[in-house]
Amino acid sequence: MKELNDFLPIIISLGAIIVLAVFFHFVPFFLWLSAKVSGVKISLMQLFLMRIRNVPPQIIVPSLIEAHKAGLSHITRDNLEAHYMTGGHVQRVVHALVSASKANIDLSFEKATAIDLAGRDVFEAVQTSVNPKVIDTPPVAAVAKNGIQLIAKARVTVRANIHQLVGGAGEDTILARVGEGIVSSIGSAESHEQVLENPDSISKLVLRKGLDAGTAYEILSIDIADIDVGKNIGATLQMDQANADKNIAQAKAEERRAMAVATEQEMKARAQEARAEVIQAEAEVPKALAAALREGHMGFMDYYRLENLKGDTAMRSNIANISPKDFLDKK
Predict the structure, then answer these.
(1) How many CA atoms lie within 13 A of 257 on its CB side?
(2) How far is residue 283 from each of residues 279, 292, 297, 317, measured CA to CA in Å?
């Protein structure tokens, strides 16, 4: 019993510490005191109910104090709790509203929360609206009418358009449109020298296109930072076209040669067939003569004259084939 009495003060102290820790967890007294000192009206019961609703008072109360000190009295505790419970960034929204108020930018609480819930950084948007930022485009390659390629880099100065942050296109769209405008401007130039002499003509033409329509930014200026001369695309295309024409001509010539070879082979085949028919017809002549002699259609003297005619024809053929030199040599 004596040992229990010795530990009793320690147990009571631990119990008191636990009770106080639970109390100050559910009833953040020091946050309430900070709010009272700052002039924000909020009760301990409201802070306790925040804990019950799983809304952290350490986020809501400092945001209320910041809004109150900035003169934004229309921002209430219920507004901040509702925005937190919908997944929004309460502190970021309050920072943005305070910055917009100091910069005389028309930004309501409903608009700020809508921008925040849309996934955009509303505080960064307000800062960009006050201090425009510069976006560097990647190298954009384009070809002038004379076939020379130019590689241009541009610096785009943009300012956030607060009223189009919800549903407006982002930086990627701005870069794509500026790149398209640079390609169109260079492509419409008669020569690359014209572009190199007046690079500002590119930015002027691109600015006139109104590329920031439907985006979350307003384009203030487009400056051509650098232009490099690339390849002679026109000459390369002409060479490729010439090679293609040469290959086509070679293919057509090969086709004509193949057709000529086929025609020649066909003619040789026909000649061989004709020669075979002649030989076959000549083989039938002796048979016809023999049959004519047997049947009495032809007499012996007729046959003799025919043989003399054949010998005379052969002699004339041989004489016709002898050249003058051979004739003199025989003499």
Answers:
(1) 6
(2) 6, 15, 20, 21
- Please name which of 64, 109, 114 lies closest in space to residue 91, comparing C-alpha atoms: 64
231 phi, psi to nearest 5 deg: -80, 160
Nearest to 229 by CA among 139, 141, 145, 151: 151
Separate counts of helices (H) and strands (E) for the chain: 14, 4
Give the whole-angstrom CA distance, residue 206 versus residue 204. 5
What letter does residue 213 receive in the DSSP assignment? T
Query: Would you state the pLDDT for residue 264?
Result: 86
Residue 225 backbone phi and psi in degrees, to 5: -80, -35
Is residue 285 classed as helix, strand or coil in its secondary structure? Answer: helix
What's residue 15's pLDDT?
61
CB 136, CB 198: distance < 8 Å: no
Cα separation of 22 and 106, whole Å?
43
Q: Which residues is 221 bridged to in the sheet?
A: 157
pLDDT-derived band at 26 (thresholds 50, 70, 90) equals: low
Gap between the Cα atoms of 185 and 202, Å rounded: 6
Residue of 206 and 25 predicted with greater confidence: 206
Region 206-233 average pLDDT: 83
* The total number of residues written for the chain in this structure: 331
Q: How many CA atoms lie within 13 A of 170 on its CB side?
A: 6
pLDDT tens by residue, 64-92: 888 888 888 788 888 888 888 888 888 89
Query: Which sign, positive or negative, has the C-alpha torsion 262, 263, 266, 272?
Result: negative
